[in-house]
User: What shape does this take?
Amino acid sequence: MNGTAPRAVRLTGWGRYAPAQVLTNADLERMVDTSDEWIVSRTGIRERRVAGAHETTASMAAVAALRAIRTAGLEADDIDLIILATLTPDYWMPSTAALVKEAIGNTRAAAFDIAAACSGFVYGYATASAYIAAGMARHAVVIGAELLTRFLDYSDRSTCILFGDGAGAVVLSASDEETSTVGIELTTEPQGAYMIWLPAGGSKSPPSAETIARGEHKIRMEGRETYRFATRTLASTALAAVAKAGWQPEDVDLFVPHQANIRIIEAVAKGLDLPMSKMFVNLDRYGNTSAASVPIALAEAVNEGRVAIGDKLVFVAFGAGFTSGAVAMEWTADPELGRMGDAAVRPEDVTVRLPVDWDSVDPIPPALAEVLARPLPGHLDLSDVVPGEPEHVHRPR
Ligand code: UT7
Assistant: This one.
């Protein structure tokens, strides 16, 4: 990549992928002492997707990235930067972005992972925008992808009900027209560092039989403290991005917030004095997919017809760290292109190369073995994962 003159940046592609298998609240009732009523009333979540044994963060990311690239009307080799946000990489090394680069058939891009937990996609978006604006990249793909269900403690009812798997991606491109991203705010507040964390496996506590026995390879969270931080910071970060754009909150047509808890999104709407109709919500069907949450929600909002050219959008996220980030942008792409991008890429045509002479242990947590062994829930065509359909084909179970 060579630096050239500063360039305008536009969002030209979007795509998402969600695994087919569904984990319902009724399934969780059979694993821990919880109820559908508690989960729905405290979080808004009804079901989440679970990756199958053949899937990884890289495989889901590659499908979402290719769909975003097709939506942008590009070929994989047009991309010269791949940034992948995840807290659940396939391996400690290499980066998951490197595996995605190969899987999508790209030969040119610099590819790297970014670690900012649930805010990772927004951090990646900011980073890619800066590369393009600096003339260091022409087309960048930014991916948020997570396979969280393999890092949950299925005896901890306060965390295992919250999270799900999936991937979303956007393409950002250099443009001769005006830049469409008009405000970015990123924050990091390390006093929350141990509020959401995964204690073992890193250099402070390398993996061992003892760390496994202590259950330290699973996500831990102080829910109440995180909730307090989330409501406060989502609103303040969104406001900062809105102010940088020179807008008022009421000017924004649609907020695409991190999908952690409906009560958090309602509190943010109330704090900004905005109706819930300005908040896009799909957490009822996916749960919290961490870095994948905002790009999946964005792709669905656009494909569902909630976004028109000229609309003012704000993406806003928060997560472990604590991190948060918001992007204020004006939509410039033809919303119709998203469905075509989705249809152009079949998951079964995308392969992530595996190492020679090595096979992983069975990656499926024992608690999920039964769920993943059952037949897939009906025919999941693309429209099935777009909100607004009269009824999901896989309901009722
Ligand atoms: O993206 C990463 C950021 N993470 C988040 O945004 C999560 C933020 N936090 C939250 O969304 C909420 O704090 C939770 C959904 C995790 C928990 O909701 P809460 O209203 O804050 O519940 P709580 O932790 O205050 O617990 C209330 C009660 C407790 O029982 P006692 O002590 O009052 O008897 C919990 O043991 O609810 C109990 N509880 C449950 N009961 C049934 C906790 N989890 C469950 C459960 N089913 N799954």
